[in-house]
Amino acid sequence: MDNGILAAGAQDIDFMIHGLFSYKIFGHEVWITTSHVCILIIMLILIAFSFIVKHKMKAATEVPGGFQNVVELMVEKLDGVVDGVMGKNAPKLVNYISTIFIFILMSNISGLFGLRPPTADYGTTLALGLITFSLIHICQIKYQKPKKIWEDMCSPLPPWLPLWLPINIISEIAVPISLSLRLFANVLSGTVMMALVYGLLSKIAIVWPAALHVYFDLFSGAIQTYVFCMLTMTYVNQQMETE
Q1: 88: domain range?
Q2: Of which family is this protein a member (predicted)?
Q3: pTM of this prediction?
Q4: How many CB atoms lie within 10 A of CB 102?
Q5: Is residue 196 part of a domain?
């Protein structure tokens, strides 16, 4: 597979990111890669789904039918997960957490549909980690007083003895790195394993790799989505607690 996105042809399958075309902006060459296109495809699917849901829910009935029942179940489950972790702070962030949950999950399982998972690209997971990092500190500044922030950064020593400050700063910087690397490494490992299966066992890789897809794409993808969102909620909720 030279520049393709879809997994076609057993011997040509690889797990690399390929450049599709480039353009120049402010004198710098910028490449559009397979990751960008896969993200765009997932975004278009989610946007189309949201418009369909909006249209269908306008005619919602008190006793939900098939599609309405599925949508309401999804919303209730996501609301329950966020409320279980964030408590009284859940209404403030339930929309954001639900959005990244659905996006990451769709990205992780996109390998089932022949796409290269965007979350197997560190550029994608790092961006998600930086968004969480920014949200953490926005909430920290909004809900905590400067004195409390300084005391936390000097902890466990007294605030007048900031010997622990450099270590705490490093631990804060490590948050987006650890979040992004955990998601990236787990999704990439599944992508590499499936590429090796199809590449090395091409003649006998028929039907039975579906069981591996269930684990690497569905099970592992869902677990990593849950872990990323759970850690995001935990970090943010800690900063929103004033007591």
Answers
A1: 71-240
A2: Belongs to the ATPase A chain family.
A3: 0.85
A4: 17
A5: yes
